[in-house]
Specification:
The complex is a heterodimer of chains A (134) and B (289). Chain A has 134 residues and is of the alpha+beta class. Chain A has one domain: Histidine kinase-like ATPase, C-terminal domain (Heat Shock Protein 90), CATH 3.30.565. Chain A has a 5-stranded antiparallel beta sheet with strand order 1-2-3-5-4, covered by helices on one side. Chain B has 2 domains: 150 residues, Globin-like, CATH 1.10.490.130; 110 residues, Transcription Regulator spoIIAA. Chain B has 11 helices and 5 strands. Chain B has a 5-stranded mixed beta sheet with strand order 1-2-3-4-5, with helices on both faces. In chain B, helix 8 links the parallel strand 3 and strand 4. The longest helix of chain B is centred in the middle third of the chain and has 44 residues. Classes of the chains: A alpha+beta (134), B alpha/beta (289). Chains A and B meet through helix 1, helix 2 and helix 4 of A and helix 8 and helix 9 of B. Bound molecules: adenosine-5'-diphosphate and magnesium ion (MG). Adenosine-5'-diphosphate binds next to helix 2 and helix 4 of chain A.
Chain lengths: 134, 289
């Protein structure tokens, strides 16, 4: 699968979350996403990116623009070395929050993406990969 | 270890006038100072600095963070604050300290002309002290700049959050741009504040200009809407564009608020609720005026 662009950005502060949204929007536009698809991807990035900052203690986001021959897509990989998640099923559940959020971020991000994968273990950090296609 | 401070102390004591004059000359040359007012001001600071440096040297404290060096640090903080606010660069600011090296090293050379070993040692320790004081200057300069920038950002936040009274008892809050949490907080608080002071019963929150509504933005909206309700004002949400409506559904958000496509629709509803009507004027009446 050819990669058209590949970049990595820091995710440490809430300002970084704003920058990440802008960068993801720009990549989605360059991949030819419709306004609805752009908004879905940007919103998913905002949710997972904020978790990286708030719960993961900061990390990075890798943004790739990829193509599978017929369609183009944007793949986002969020990585942190934070405390990790002990119970992934619980974390994914709508309405569950260990903080003071609405607990809809992970479930929402999954519904807003075409592909969604989360890997985590206590003490091992968290990696979320999601993708959306045109 | 403390011997070199005694050296500086005795040099300042014996050559105060000369050192000050040469130092000021170096500053004038390096920082290209032409303004006599500024020259006078720097002379004042430099005199204060030498006096305090002398005291720090007496105390023989080795670490400029120690209490004995506090007066010296204060001189440098004053300098940095002044320079940062007036818009000088960090190097223009730090030249004040670093330019002391030249006249000080010249004095050291004369003092230890016959003792190369001692000269090297004293020069090195004096250099280290001045470097530290110079770095401290740059650090405090950066701190002040940061404060200035934070304050400016704060002012910008407040400027960009207008709550407007559309009609007697009807407020509108047009949200525009990225709603990071700091800004959202301020915007929402200013709306609640205006509800209190104006006694408005209807508030229209318009999100036409908001590119992304995620769960954090939604949470702020929900909190504001319930707080407004507690204060006797009903909110109407307007300007939810189709792409935003779709993401809100996918996120599973329930906003529990009356919403209208446009601000105009929201205003029409608000007026209806307030028992007011807007009617077209007779054509003849329009031409008469
Ligand atoms: N990167 C992460 N590191 C550790 N815990 C996380 C991470 N991301 C999510 N979580 C956990 O998953 C929970 C649910 O996340 P989310 O659905 O975004 O809801 P919210 O952010 O409102 O809490 C969080 O409360 C947190 O306990
Ligand atoms: Mg979240």
């Amino acid at each position: 699968m050819p990669t058209e662009s590949d970049e990595t950005m820091p995710l440490r502060t809430s300002d970084d979350v704003v920058r990440v949204r802008q960068a993801v929007r720009a990549r989605a536009v360059s991949a030819g996403f419709s306004l609805v698809d752009q908004t879905k991807l940007v919103t998913a990035a905002s949710e997972v990116g904020r978790n990286t900052v708030d719960y993961g203690g900061g990390g990075t986001l890798r943004i790739e623009v990829v193509s599978n021959g017929r369609r183009r897509g944007v793949r986002l990989t969020f990585t942190d070395q934070g405390p990790g998640i002990a119970d992934l099923t619980l974390a994914m559940k709508d309405g569950y929050t260990s903080g003071s959020g609405l607990g809809l971020g992970l479930g929402g991000a999954k519904r807003l993406s075409n592909e969604f994968d989360i890997r985590s273990a206590p003490g091992q950090g968290t990696i979320v990969t999601l993708a959306r296609w045109t | 270890m403390s011997e070199h401070r005694h050296v500086i102390l005795s040099l300042i004591d014996r050559h105060h006038q000369q050192l000050l004059a040469e130092w000021l000359a170096c500053q004038k040359r390096d920082a290209r100072i032409a303004d006599p007012q500024r020259e006078k001001e720097i002379a004042g600071l430099a005199g204060r600095f030498l006096d305090q440096l002398r005291r720090g040297a007496i105390a023989q404290a080795d670490d400029i963070q120690m209490a004995e060096w506090q007066p010296v640090r204060e001189v440098l903080e004053d300098l940095s604050r002044d320079r940062a606010i007036q818009g000088f660069s960090p190097s223009e600011t730090a030249i004040f300290v670093f330019s002391l090296k030249e006249p000080l090293f010249a004095l050291l050379r004369r003092e230890f002309a016959i003792d190369a070993d001692r000269l090297a040692r004293e020069t090195w320790t004096a250099s280290r002290l001045i470097d530290r004081l110079g770095l401290y200057t740059i650090e405090s300069y950066a701190r002040v700049r940061e404060e200035v920038i934070t304050r400016q950002q704060q002012e910008l936040l407040e400027l960009s959050t207008p709550v407007v009274e559309l009609w007697d008892g009807i407020l509108a809050l047009p949200l525009i741009g990225t709603l990071d949490s700091a800004r959202t907080q301020i915007v929402m608080e200013s709306l609640l504040q205006r509800i209190v002071t104006s006694g408005a019963e209807i508030a229209i929150i318009d999100i036409t200009g908001v590119p992304t509504v995620d769960t954090l933005v939604a949470q702020h909206l929900i909190k504001t809407i319930s707080a407004a309700r507690l204060m006797g004002a009903d909110c109407i949400l307007s300007g939810i564009r189709p792409q935003i409506a779709q993401t809100i559904v996918h996120l599973g958000l329930e906003l529990n608020v009356v919403s209208k496509a446009t601000m105009a629709d929201a205003l029409a509803l608000a007026l209806r609720r307030a028992n007011k009507t807007i009617i077209d004027r007779e054509p003849s009446a329009a031409t008469r005026t």
